[in-house]
């Protein structure tokens, strides 16, 4: 009788241990996504200042500037839980921002403008932080996904509604290509 009770207690303790590990992994992934969201918000807040600074020097580049604003608004409109949709929208926005920075090459006065230089530095810093946040999120998602799919934790995960998290990936293959710079 004592042996059966000890086995039941051991199984119960193991289930609690697995469940708590799954909860921790899910929370880590959600916290990591929050980090990405914060950095993307910082970038989105920086864009209007960058656009206004560039407008003064490159007024006839209106189409490029409007495209960046439109892509920023689309990225902000993606629902919070849509990782794939957000990744795609942010990839397009990142490419458009690259065009803005490339405009500086055509306008020496813009390149020398202190506001533009500071905004460009801030954007580079934020882009680096977004990249680190993406890596952290993808690592946290990977850890959760391994637990959700691995035996025997998958049995507990299935019973308590734990599911895999999508990775924050580049959806458009063209975004993976090395950009061509021509002078």
TrEMBL record:
Q: Which SUPFAM superfamilies match?
A: LemA-like (SSF140478)
Q: Which positions, given as ranges, span the membrane?
A: 6-23
One Pfam family linked to the record: LemA
Q: Which UniProt keywords apply?
A: Membrane, Transmembrane, Transmembrane helix
Read off the InterPro entries from this record. LemA-like_dom_sf (IPR023353), MamQ_LemA (IPR007156)
Lipid bilayer topology = Single-pass membrane protein
UniProt-annotated location(s) = Membrane
Q: Which family does the record assign?
A: Belongs to the LemA family.
Task: Specify the protein name.
Answer: LemA family protein
């Amino acid at each position: 009788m004592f042996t059966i009770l000890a086995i039941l207690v051991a199984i119960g303790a193991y289930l609690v241990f697995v469940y708590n590990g799954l909860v921790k992994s899910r929370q880590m992934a959600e916290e990591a996504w929050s980090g990405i969201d914060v950095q993307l918000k910082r970038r989105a807040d920086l864009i209007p200042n960058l656009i206004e600074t560039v407008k003064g020097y490159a007024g006839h580049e209106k189409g490029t500037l409007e495209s960046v604003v439109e892509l920023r608004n689309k990225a902000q409109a993606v629902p919070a839980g849509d990782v794939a949709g957000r990744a795609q929208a942010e990839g397009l926005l990142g490419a458009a921002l690259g065009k803005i920075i490339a405009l500086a090459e055509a306008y020496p006065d813009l390149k020398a403008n202190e506001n533009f230089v500071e905004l460009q530095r801030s954007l580079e810093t934020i882009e680096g932080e977004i990249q680190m946040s993406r890596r952290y999120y993808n690592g946290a998602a990977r850890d959760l996904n391994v637990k959700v799919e691995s035996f025997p934790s998958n049995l507990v995960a299935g019973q308590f509604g734990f599911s895999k998290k999508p990775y924050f990936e580049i959806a458009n293959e063209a975004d993976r290509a090395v950009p061509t710079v021509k002078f």
